[in-house]
Amino acid sequence: YVNSRGDSASANIAVSQVAQSLSTEYKIPFFRRPETRYLKIKGGIQKEIFDDSESRLNTISLLRHSRSLDDWQKVLSLRWEQERFKVMGKAWQESNLLLPGMSWSKTVEQSPRRAKWGYRYNLILQGASRQLGSDIDLQKITASAKWLWKLSHRHRFLSRAELGWLGTNDF
Question: What is the spatial distance between Cα 83 and Cα 112, in angstroms, rounded to a whole number?
Fold first, then answer.
């Protein structure tokens, strides 16, 4: 914790031959129900180099988390992304996106330490618009689910599904 109000901060660094990244996060709990209602400010930089392409991504996000009485986590977000990239030795190109979004998720598990069964559902809606300063108009929907069952003392069965849709007028 950073202070007596419960603010917290974290940073992550990842380095490999093809990708390097640095991300930071600052969490500010709300006065009422601070364990389930809080703001997060996130930032990050990422560089990836593959055989014929290179990418550099900068991000800044503001997220408002809240949990309902039936344990659904809701997140309102605003994310800015600036990506510079080149493919096959061509000139650098740049993309700027301002992505407002909403997400809902719910996790239920029998025991957090050694779950015998559980599930997680997640739905994410994001969009970008030229009218809000993005380079393109974009709509994105992602839905996912995971289920866990304990079959025996040593075996568990995990299944997952993910479905997504991306729409744009300029790609």
Answer: 38
Residues 6+ apart with CB under 8 A from 91: none
Whole-angstrom distance, CA of residue 8 vs CA of residue 41: 11
Which residues lie across from 83 on neighbouring strands?
A: 57, 95
**Cα 49 versus chain centre, distance:** 22
Reported as a single tens digit per residue, the pLDDT across 114-143 is 778 899 999 999 999 999 999 999 999 999
Q: What are phi and psi of 89, to 5 degrees?
A: 75, 5
What confidence tens digit (pLDDT) does each residue in 54-95 have?
Answer: 999 999 999 999 998 888 999 999 999 999 999 988 899 999
φ, ψ for residue 130, nearest 5 deg: -60, -35
Sign of CA dihedral 112, 118, 120, 121: negative
